[in-house]
Every structure is written in C-alpha cells, then in structure tokens.
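Letters spell out the chain; backbone shape is given numerically. Take this protein:
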Amino acid sequence: MMMSADTKERIMEAARLTVQDLGYSGLSFRELAKDVGIKSASIHYYFATKGELGSAITSRYTSHFAQYFEELLTQGLDLKTCMARYTDVFANTLRNGNRMCLAGILSAERNELPDDVRSEVVKWGEMNERWIARVLMLDARAKPDETAHRGRAIFAAVSGAQLIAHSRGDVSVFDEIIAAYRVSGLIP
C-alpha cells in the first residue's frame, strides 16, 4: 500500500487536534480515520500503535515550539517581549476551540500513557524550562543558579493558568491570570 507524506501529515495533525481537545483517551484510530477520510487500517501503515502516534505528535509538537522559541532569541527580542510571545502560545491554543497545550493535557493522563509518550511529555516540560531560564538570563541582574528554578515556576504557572481558563471555557481568565503574574513579578 503506497501512502503519501501528506496523508501522514493529515493523520498527525488530526491526532494532535483531537488530543488537545479530548485527551489521549479520546484518541481513536476509527474516529481519526473518519476525520482524515481514510480507512482505519490505513493509519496502522504509518503508526502501528496509538502510543507510537502519541509519541510522534508530541515529539513534533516539542520540536516545532523549540524552533519557534529559539527564533525569538535569534531575533534579539528583549526579556518582556520573549515572555509575552511565550504566553501568547498558550493563549492562542485556548483561542483555537478552547484546546489545551498538547503536553499539558497529556500530563493529566500520565498514568494511562505508554512510556514513550510519557517520555515525550517530560521532554516538552524540560524544553520549556530551559528556554525560560535562558530568557531570564537576558536580565543582567539574573543569577544563573536561580533561573532554572524560576523557569520551572513560570512554566508551571503558565500551564496552570491555561488549565484554569480551559476548565472555564474562557481565554480571558488566562489573560487575567497572566496579567496578575506580571504585576506580581513572577513573569517578567
């Protein structure tokens, strides 16, 4: 059976959107096949298991945003602009059908995830924490030994703000929480 790279891309995109909306437990090859317009067995041509698909979409998600975040630093943006663009990623995900960050929603299902998916979720968090720590170092007063801890705190705070806004179906709640974090100094 010969399938196109476009079909694989459509499967991965539909799977990502489904997981961001319904979680890993809501991902069904049968429903995914309907969304993509192919037979369920065709998905197995690309992904032997649901775990393999989950791992692939999470790895791609992390790579995509790692590249985007790196580009922000390459552009020479200042600390506040970088952090604003960072929080915009989470807000824009909510604006897209009240979806959650892919890794964030998968984190909530941690105990149900295959090891390879769980590993990719951890990589997402670590990538975010390292990037935020690098951004914090743009402040000349930053202390290298404190930026890693603060990076984790900021990542947790932004993720939590998204979860609360998602539960209420209201992106303005996310915006309000992030604004309060900025006033308090947690987020530059």
